[in-house]
Here is the input.
Amino acid sequence: MKTYCLELTGPYACFTRPEMKVERVSYDVMTPSAARACFEAILWKPAIRWHVRKIEVLKPIRWINLRRNEVAGVVSTRNVETAMKNGAGDLALYIEDERQQRAGLFLRDVAYRVHADLEVLPGAAPDNTPMKFQEMFERRAGKGQCVNQPYLGCREFAAAFRLVGDPGAEEPAIDETRDLGFMLHDLDFSKPSDPVPRFFRANMESGVVDVPAWDSGEVRG
Here is the structure.
């Protein structure tokens, strides 16, 4: 199985802890689900799934407090259904009415190397081979192309990315070890209408977080 490595950098990041109800507080390190989303931003197809295996932290963990304007609401599903039925409807969201300020504890000046491999899902068409998607990803990532801009937890925190051909030749991860506690691994979408979060006990050893497989006993939900 071929593993790919992306270097992701940005001035800010927020990998929000789900237990924080009002204000946004980031995990200390990028979550596997956020890393997966960065790979999917470069290549996503219904026939494949990305599996994140390892996250390397390249810069010291630093924090910043920010207060931002956010939109408090979303367009009502009922209004959308009514508009679809009637052929017309008010689907606007008026920012002036929904704006609110939130404080947040974010990461700043971040850099990661993320390692992942892709799986072709069972039931895919015969011509959907792993090599086909691997070549597509290598071509896109090598040219800096993406379907949508990868981001570091929040869409306004855009990530610059680079395909790393030889991770062993790159600078080492930071020399820091810490227990990160329970961290979000990803969401279980077996019931799309009610996704369930699953967690794992994360440890950073010499700047490296090893990510257990989704179906391993270390992932709980």
In short: The longest helix spans residues 130-143.
